[in-house]
Amino acid sequence: MSGSFSVSGSAPCRFAHYFVVCGIDTETGLEPDELAALYQWLEADRQGRDPDAAATGENFEQSPLKRTFKSKVLARYPENLEWNPFDQDAVNMLCMPKGLSFRTQADQRTPQFHSFIITREDGSRTYGFVHTFYEEVTSPQICSAMQTLTQMHNAESTSANTPSSSSSSSSSMDSLASSLDEADSPTSSSSRRAGSYDSSRDTLYVSKALCLITPMPFMHACRRFLSQMHRAVTAATAPPLPLESYVHNILYEVPLPAPGRSLKFHGVYEPIVCQRPGLGELQLADFPLAEAFSLLGVENLVQVFTCTLLEMQILLYSHDYQRLMTVAEGITTLLFPFQWQHVYVPILPASLLHFLDAPVPYLMGLQSKEGTDRSTLELPQEANLCFVDIDNHYIELPEDFPNFPNKTELIQELSEVLLSYGISANTGAPPRTRTCPGSAPGSTPSTPGRERKTVALRQLEDDGRNGNLAGEELAVLELLQGNATLERLQALTKRTGVTVARVDALRAGVKAQLTEGQGGRTAAEEEELKNAKLNVQLREVCASRFTTMFADYEAFVIQSAPDLESWLTNREQMHNFDKASFLSDQPEPYLPFLSHFIETQMFATFIDNKIMSQWEDKEPLLRVFDARIDKARLFNVRAPSLRSSSYQRCTILKESAQTVEQRLMKIDHTAIHPHLLDMKIGQGKYEQGFFPKLQADVLNTGPTNNKWSHRTATAQRRKERHRHQTEHLGLENDLKEKFMQEARSLGKNLRQPKLSDLSPAVIAQTNWKFVEGLLKECRMKTKRMLVEKMGREAVELGHGEATITGLEENTLIASLCDLLERIWSHGLQVKQGKSALWSHMLHYHAREEKLEQQQAESPVSHVPERRKSDCSMAMPSLPVSLIQDMRHIQSMSEIKTDVGRARAWIRLSLEKKLLSQHLKQLLCRQALTKKLYKRYAFLRCEEEKEQFLFHLLSLNTVDYFCFTSVFTTIMIPYRVVIIPIKKLSNAMTTSNPWVCVSGQLGDSGIMQIPKNVLEMTFDCQNLGKMTTVQLGHDNAGLLAKWLVDCVMVRNEITGHTYKFPCGRWLGKGVDDGSLERVLIGEPVLPSGEEDSGRGCYTPPLQRSPSQIRRISVTSLSGRGYKPTSAQIQEAIGEAVNNIIKHFHKPEKERGSLTVLLCGESSLVSALEQFFRHGFKSARLFQKTVFVWDFVEKAIAYMESADQMGDLQETAEPLGRTCQSLCHYVNAINSTRRNIGKDGKFQLLVCLGARDRLLPQWVPLLVECPVIQRMYEDSALLRDRATVSSHIDVLETLHDFPITLEASIVKGIAL
């Protein structure tokens, strides 16, 4: 972020590297800015014409005074530095981002200050500070050229009475350009005489920029130095020394302050002081954070800070370049100990607007023009964009945005710090999330229009909302005092007895401030001190949040490589951080934010730096952060497991401010004073109002006798020797650099767009980098999703962590949605709505409907429907249709925006295993893709597109329920098909059947099935994963017996089909006499669809009881199915084990407990086998006997024995257990439900497991004399050792809270 790591060992410690002058080159004259040519090229490319043949003529529609002309670097001192080569194009473009601007004497010509930053490819930064002022044009050629242009413009505007209408669907980039060029009137007075320059009566002025380029962001010091230089030029008397002396002094004789020290050097008129934080402190940040908080409000700034941490696309928007820089630097300095890893361009030059098309996270600043409205600003992509309108104090946030942990308390603490310095801790305009495009721009209260602008100005004036700094009042007063007209007016009003109270009060207030601040310091120094203290305190508040949140991060860092080389080589395959364990250790409220944050590039880089610190010096930010954590541990001995979400305030605010104050009060070092140089006599001549051409020979080389330059050279040689020694031991630097560029991130090698060459070839090359980056990101994301989902299998294959929480899965899917939006936004030609993907789908839908209409008129071509697997038997197949899925999403009233619809559609397609297939179908209409996308777009790169679809196809190998589990309140149509066993039963029954479907989120309620109908559909609120079906009838009529094979239920939106096997009779006097059965579901796996890429290879999540178990004991023995005693014992152990495993899983991954209790291989199934073993001949007197018959007889015996007093002598607990068993069995028998004998046994086992009574009931049944009549001697139930071991196994379930589904215990009040 700051200079603390920009100044590498190789850079000598000079305060400033270059002094630059930019302006108009009188020799080449007026040249139109490259911007116009670039737009013509892009527009020709969009329309399919040859872009190179596009005319590069002048733009006569605009007044020459409003046009932009090419600026040049007129001079730079020194010519070049080996350690920091001068980038002429970049510096020129950032000194004058709009190019040259012209003014006449009628226009406002206030000098402006702004800063900029150049990020090199290795991530190091150089800062630029620019003072722009207007200088009179003395060249007659330029004046006459301007006169000619004005006449041509006037002729053009009179001839073209009708405005040229441009195509309505203009490129988003072009509309962006036009919105930036609208209403560029500097003042209202000049709009009256727009374009009216007459060389005979007007004086022409042109902008000129003085710039200092420094390795560290000493913003205040550079600002004061440059303003003093300008003052020296405009003052009536010449400065004490030639200007060369001051430039030479700051370039060669002023050193960088040493860490932890302060420095004083001299400008033209006054001394300037700066200070640099020590090695253990937060890095240097000189941009006034208070201003950033005042401009946006505390809450808004915290929200933008959160977006930055989550690496969203952030676009800052303001008319003032310095505001853009202040907010951008303010936000990034708050990130400590993390660093922004992606594109960072706080001031985006007009000629780089195409960079907003970048499909990567970015933090960019865009200059707005006066009078333009946010609604006119068409941006290439907005699905994941945080838009920050600085001037109007409002922000637009992306959807699905998690809050920063303890956000309210953080805002409160920051507000208190601001208030302690007298700054109103206002919260700015309320943040807005994206609204649906249908809403009228005027309808939203916070639309930035003229209305809001006047309100904003009024509030600025009243000082109510903005907490204006005293410095701003000072500026207002300076403006009033410097304005001759206002001074005359004021004098006149005083003579006539009228007082201008506001100005007088302002003057008095400023005077009071000046006298109050005089501890030997000027008001400006006082202001700087206040800013420095406030900056460090605001940053300490945020830093302490991270120190608290990541206090134990080291415990979760996985350090698996033996040396640096092997770690760098295998970096991509390695897991460096145990994310699942880290998240499981965090307080619940932190999880939504943290689960997203630990997936970011900045966190990955932080962990990489931590691992690399084993082998090399610690990265400076990491060193400071680790030292703070160690210090916190000394004072706060806390067990890492006892994490709490309570807010811990920053404890070092006072001492951090004192440290800064002491440094600024006691100057550690004073630089050499500016002095006369050995210059030719007569040069450096002074002419008021004009910045002279400086003498290059004295400024291109520095003194050789400087003590600190020698110190630097010695240190340099020492470092070189050390580097040569370590070179053969360590890793080659170029390999490490290559790794940093490639392995870490796709955005990192695009941190700063290349500002030098803006040819179409360069734009194409940049876009090619984006395409490669997007493909790589897609590969990484799909691999990560697969590895996490495969869990244990993946660990065995060596892919890292085993567990994935539902929360983490949701985060990964959300980041996939974001990636798809960025891919669909790349190279977009026509911008419609906030979501590029949804917009494309709407275009596709419209085109398909047109084709359908044409086909309806011509003979119909049959499209084969997807065949369903055999196990769905009578279930009609569900067609695969992208448009049908779109319609489902459109009918969901809960989703209000296009971005939300696109995300829901992605989740639905992922759940249906159709994402790759649908997107392939969407992109197969090549004419549509060509119409919507430019040539360089990702979606028009055939090979990359194929690879991308293949990566998405790999997601079909795992099961997702990401739609069903997220949209829990929507209405879903379900289809139910009842399949009878036709050979043995009348398919139709005279009774009135009913059905009730239950899932993890609820049930459908009892629904009557129309007579003689075996298929029905119903709408119901999302049931989630389906678990049980209750099926029954009322036993009416002659044919009241029904033999049902199974019930099939399908979710008509997701296509999930469940089979509920039955294989039993429903009817009185047949089977076990049941009129109602509770059936347990199993998902039907789609088979025979590998050709469409939907094959699912994961094992089924749930299985339900096989038909064999559901047939009565007699028929079982009749079929000769008799499990051995060993198999039965194993089955009981397995069933109990499965239930215990269920409770040991994270809650969101558990699946259905009902299946483990009542399904196949379940507890009920195993105990039924146990009770059946050794059952005596089941058919006595031709009547089928069931296990429930034995239970009833045992209960009857116990009750009769109790009446005769035999049980009264038994121990008290045993008596109570006996009573509980009798009570439960009688309650089950007396229920109004006709669930049959096997249904009753199932209910008893479930209730016994729930209420922890099973192990107590089994001995009672074993001890009952009835057992001798009904069981053979070899029965397991009569083997005491076996019974005892099973009781021990069942007792292990007591540790877990077993809850039963409503469908199982319906009608039982126990």
Automatic annotation (TrEMBL):
PROSITE patterns: DENN (PS50211), PLAT (PS50095), RUN (PS50826). Residues 807-968, 1154-1303 form the RUN domain. Residues 154-198, 435-448 have a biased composition (Low complexity). Residues 702-715 have a biased composition (Polar residues). CDD domains: PLAT_RAB6IP1. Gene3D superfamilies: 1.20.58.900, 3.30.450.200, 3.40.50.11500, PLAT/LH2 domain. Residues 716-725 have a biased composition (Basic residues). Residues 972-1080 form the PLAT domain. One of its GO terms (molecular function) is guanyl-nucleotide exchange factor activity. It comes from the Eukaryota. The keyword Repeat applies. Belongs to the RAB6IP1 family. This is DENN domain-containing protein 5B. It comes from Champsocephalus gunnari.
